[in-house]
Amino acid sequence: MSAGQIDLNCDMGESFGAWRMGEDAAVMPHITSANIACGFHAGDPDTMRRTVALAIQHGVAIGAHPSLPDLAGFGRREMKVSANEAYALIAYQVGALDAFARAAGRRVTHVKPHGALYNMAAKDVALSDAIAVAVHDVDATLILVGLAGSELPRAGERAGLRVAHETFCDRRYEADGSLSPRGVEGAVIDDIDSAVAQGLALAAHGEITARGGSLLKLKVDTLCIHGDKPNAAAFAARLRAALDAAGVRIAALAN
Amino acid sequence: MSAGQIDLNCDMGESFGAWRMGEDAAVMPHITSANIACGFHAGDPDTMRRTVALAIQHGVAIGAHPSLPDLAGFGRREMKVSANEAYALIAYQVGALDAFARAAGRRVTHVKPHGALYNMAAKDVALSDAIAVAVHDVDATLILVGLAGSELPRAGERAGLRVAHETFCDRRYEADGSLSPRGVEGAVIDDIDSAVAQGLALAAHGEITARGGSLLKLKVDTLCIHGDKPNAAAFAARLRAALDAAGVRIAALAN
Amino acid sequence: MSAGQIDLNCDMGESFGAWRMGEDAAVMPHITSANIACGFHAGDPDTMRRTVALAIQHGVAIGAHPSLPDLAGFGRREMKVSANEAYALIAYQVGALDAFARAAGRRVTHVKPHGALYNMAAKDVALSDAIAVAVHDVDATLILVGLAGSELPRAGERAGLRVAHETFCDRRYEADGSLSPRGVEGAVIDDIDSAVAQGLALAAHGEITARGGSLLKLKVDTLCIHGDKPNAAAFAARLRAALDAAGVRIAALAN
Amino acid sequence: MSAGQIDLNCDMGESFGAWRMGEDAAVMPHITSANIACGFHAGDPDTMRRTVALAIQHGVAIGAHPSLPDLAGFGRREMKVSANEAYALIAYQVGALDAFARAAGRRVTHVKPHGALYNMAAKDVALSDAIAVAVHDVDATLILVGLAGSELPRAGERAGLRVAHETFCDRRYEADGSLSPRGVEGAVIDDIDSAVAQGLALAAHGEITARGGSLLKLKVDTLCIHGDKPNAAAFAARLRAALDAAGVRIAALAN
User: Fold this and answer.
1) Residue-number span of the structural domain to which C95 is assigned
2) With contacts defined as CB-CB under 8 Å, which chain C residues touch D130?
3) Touching check for C69 and chain B: CB below 8 Å?
4) In CATH, what number is assigned to the domain containing residue D171?
5) pLDDT tens-digit profile of D16-64?
6) CA distance C71 to D168
7) What DSSP string runs through D97-119?
8) D91: closest CA of chain A, how far (Å)
9) Domains held by chain B: number
10) pLDDT tens for residues B183-225?
11) Which of A191, A244, A247, D243 could disulfide-pair with D248, CB 3.0 to 4.6 Å?
C-alpha cells in the first residue's frame, strides 16, 4: 500500500447555551482538524471559547464552521441568500471564531461551511464564489474545505485559496461523485467495518466503489468524522488504527 | 486657549436588515472614530461590511461597538451576564468586526461597549475587568473607550490597554463626574449652542460646570456625537468649527 | 359600473424594537384589514400590542401576518421548511397575535402569510396545505388570504376555510395570472393614476390587461396597499375615492 | 394525616430545534400540570406542538411557561424589562402556546413564568402586576403560578386571577419563606428520601423546617418536579406513592 497523508476533521462546539450536543471531549483526541460552530446554527460565544481551548489542548487545527443564520433549524434548512449576504455572513463568523483563536495565541487555519450552506455551495457557483472570496479577503492563508470534486473547492482555487477535498467514510457515493441522497437505500453506511474500509480506501487510494458498482476516483484531503453519532470516538480510533497500519500519515491540512 | 487634541466618535452601523437607523453617510465626514455595531443590538453582517467601507472612505478609525445580546431592546436593557459570558461576547463581536476591517485592508483600532453594557461597565469592576481582558487577549494594541473617570478605563489600564475617556457634549454631569440621570431636569442638553460650548470646554480644558454649579474636572480623550439625533451632522460640523477656532486638533485616538 | 364589494388590506406593525418601518398611523384610517407582523420577520410583542390597538381605534379588522423566522432578511428569503415546521410556525404566530386581540376584546379575523412564505405558498401545494390546516386547526372561522388564483386559496378551501383572493394595484400581471417578476420592465406600476385605475378595474370588474395585452380575469376579494411606499396614505385615499365614485363598497372581508 | 389536594407540575418542552433537554416522555405520566416552554428560552414551535400532544395523551393540564427573551442564557439571566415589555411578552407567549392547545381541542389552563422572570417576579411588585394583568387580559380564567407567599401570587389576586402557590421538594427554605440561595450549603436537597419527605410535609401540612431550624408555614397548591434532574421520573413516582399513602389527592390545579 502506498503511503499518503490524510486529515481527520470533525464538527465541534455544536452545543448552545444550556443545550449539549456531541461528545467533543471524547472525539477531540482522535482528530486533526476541528470545525467549530460560530453562533449561527450552534455555538454560543462561551462554547466557542471552550472548544478552541479543547482543540489547542489536543493539538488539533482550529477551523471555522460557518452556517446560514438558523438556530431553530440547526443550519440544515436551505435558505436563499444573495452573494453579498453570503460574503458577509462568512466573514463575520470566521472573524468571530478567529478572535478566540487569537486570544489563545493561535489562528483559524481552515473554513468548512455547515449543513445546508455546505450542500448548496457544492452545486451553486455564485454562492461558492461569494464564500471563497470572503474567506480569501479575511485571510488569504486560510484553507477552504468542501465536498470533494464539487463547486466549492473550484471556487476556492479561483479565489487563490488552498482548498481541501472532503470525503465521507459513512456515506455512499453515486457514480458522478455526489453523495447518494439520504432517501436512497444504503445511502448511510452504518456498519463500522464497512465505514472504516471506505475511509481507508479513500485515504490510501482515493478510490471506492460507487452505488451501482462502478469505480469512483475522488480527490481526498480530509475525512469527515460524524461527531453526533453515538460511537464517534470509537469509530475514529478504529479508523486511525487502520490508517496507521496502512502507512497513511494522519496530519492536519496545513502540515 | 491652550491647544489640545480631541477625538470625535459616533455610534454607526445601527441599521438592521430592512430597518434603517442613523444618518451614517451624513455624519461620517465629520468624525474621527466610528463605533460600529457588531450584530448583537444592531448591525447585520452586510451592514457591518458597508459601514466599514464608509469609514474607510472618510478616513475614520474603525471601532467595535459590542453589546449585550438584545436586538428587540437595542442593547439598552441591563442583563446579568457572568464574567465568562462578558469575555466571550466581547471577543466574538470584536473579532466579527475585525474580519470586515481586515477584508478591507485595515484593522479595528478601538472598542467601545454599547448601551446597557457601557453603563454597567462604568460601575461594575468585575464586568469591566472581563471586558478589558477580552479586548487585550484579542489584540493588545486596541484602545478601550469608556465613560470618563469610570471603572471601565481603570480596568483597561489594569489589563495593559491604552484607554480613552469619553465625555458627552449634550449630557449634564453630576458633581462626582457621573452623568445626571435622564429623569433629572436638564439632564439632556438640547440647545445646540450650549452643547457646542460644553464640548469645547471639555476638549480644550477638561473642565465644565456640573449640575449644582460646582466645577468638574474630567479626563477627556474623545467626545461622543449622538448620531441618532435629527441634526447630528449639523451639530458635528458646528462643534468642529468651534474646536478649530480654539486651536484644538481633531484626530482619531490612535493618531 | 356594477357595484361590488372590496377589502383594502395593508401590512402593519413591521417596526421592531428601536427600528421604525411604515406609516401605520397615517395609513390605518384608509384600510379595512390590517395584516399585523407577528415577531418572526418584524413586530416585537409591544409593537404588536400597539398595532392591534391602532387597528381597533380605526375599526380595522385584525389579521395575522406570519412569516418564516428571518429577522435579518425581513422574511423575504426563501427557506425550505417542512410541512410540520410550517404548520407549527403558523399556529404559533396566529396564536401570539390573537392574544393581543383577545386582550383588547377582539379576535384575529384573517391570516395572510408574509413575503417569501406568501410567494412559496402560492405555488407549493404541500406548503399551502400545511398553512391552511394550521389556520383551520387554530380557528376554523379565520379567513385565509393568498395570491388570487394561486395554490394558497385552493388549500384554504380544501381545509374548509373561507378564503380571500388578493390582487395588487401596483403590480403588473402575466397572462397566466401570476405577478410579473420584479426584474421585468414595468413589473411595478409606479404611476399613481395607473395604479388607481388598475385597482378600480380589479375591484369593480375583476378584469385587467396583462403584460402582453391579453385580458385577464381574476377573483378579487381584497386589494393590497403597500404601506412601505412613501405615499401610501395618499394612494389609499385616492383609491378609496375612485372606488366610492364607482359605487364599490369598501368593507373588511368578514363583513 | 389530614387529606389535602396537591398538583404536581414540571417544566416541559425545553428542547430547541436539534437540541434535546429533559425526559418529557418519562416524566409526563407522573405529573398533573405541564409548564410548556413558549419559544423565548426554549421550545421551538414544533416542539411546543409535540409537547402539547404529549400532555393531552397523559391527561396533564397544559400551562404556559413564558420567559425573558434569552435563548443563549436559557432565560436564567436577569434582564431589566419595562412593565409594557413584560405585559407584551407574557401575552405573546401565552397566546402562542394556546394556539397549539386550541388546535388540539384544549386550552391553556395556567401560566408559570420561567427562570429569571419567575425569580424577579417573586420580589418585584411592578413586574408582577404587569405579568398578572397580561394573563388576566388574555384569559381571566387562567391560573397564575408563582413562588409560594411571594409577590406574584399577590399580584395575581389583585388582578382577579385564581393563583397557585408553588413550593419545592428539593430546595431548602429560609425562615422568611424565601428559597435559600444556591450558594448556601444544603440549599439543594439532593437526597431523594429527604426531598420526598419535604414534598409530603408541604403537601399534607404546608409546614416544613426552615434552614436554621424554625418551623415554616407555607401556602402550598403545587409541588415542582425538576425535570432536568437525571432521576426525575423515579423521583416523581416515589413522591406520588408517598402522597397516595398519606391520603393526599393528586390533581391538576383547575380540578
Assistant:
1) 5-250
2) none
3) no
4) 3.20.20.370
5) 999 999 999 999 999 999 999 999 999 999 999 999 999 999 999 999 9
6) 39
7) HHHHHHHTT----EE---HHHHH
8) 22
9) 1
10) 899 999 999 999 999 999 999 999 999 999 999 999 999 999 9
11) D243
